[in-house]
Design brief:
Distance between the termini: 40 Å
Shape: globular
CATH architecture: 3-Layer(aba) Sandwich
Order of helices and strands: EHHHEEEHEHEHH
Structural class: alpha/beta
Helix content: 40-55%
Length: about 170
């Protein structure tokens, strides 16, 4: 069964008290933490994931898509585009490729726009509860992987310089 998860990045950041507090301190760290959580989750579940951040203020009209892992991509939308518009376009163009598409957003109108028998809107709160449950499983697997090695990867260790700089620029706005 082929499943993809589309996550409205900023919408999800603002729906988690932990991520929201981190966001107040440092946007880049909050984004990185969300990406780390979803990457771990998608790895464990064997699902594709797209984390879409509104970057509609950037100068280029092109979306920037960065593959974080074989399962997860981060998308920065182009000038004048929102995460909602990216999600709608993605579903329209790719619906036939997937058995199920989960849309993580608290934007009720977005959830209603994408309603279909194989498209499921999820609240960020419920999705993050599931992610945290799988995070515990991930940490147990990591511990069994090697109890003698320190296992604490950071997303920034794997991002291309271009994407890291764009995320920093967005954080300064």
């Amino acid at each position: 069964m082929k499943v993809v998860i589309l996550v409205d990045g900023y919408n999800t950041l603002y729906q988690s008290s932990f991520l929201k507090n981190l966001l107040k301190k440092n946007l880049h760290q909050a984004q990185e933490e969300l990406i780390r959580l979803i990457s771990n989750y998608c790895s464990l579940k064997g699902r594709e994931g797209y984390i879409i951040f509104d970057a509609y203020r950037q100068s280029s009209s092109l979306d920037v898509e960065e593959e974080i892992t074989s399962e997860v991509k981060v998308v920065l939308t182009g000038k004048g585009k929102t995460a909602d518009s990216y999600i709608e376009r993605f579903i329209f163009q790719n619906k036939s490729r997937y058995d199920y598409i989960y849309v993580v957003t608290s934007d009720y109108s977005q959830g209603m726009t994408v309603m279909d028998t194989k498209i499921f809107p999820l609240s960020p709160q419920n999705f993050l509860k599931e992610v945290k449950a799988y995070q515990k499983e991930f940490l147990m697997k990591a511990h069994s992987f090697s109890s003698s090695q320190k296992f604490n990867p950071r997303l920034s260790d794997y991002l291309k310089d271009e994407v890291r700089e764009k995320l920093k620029e967005i954080g300064k706005e």
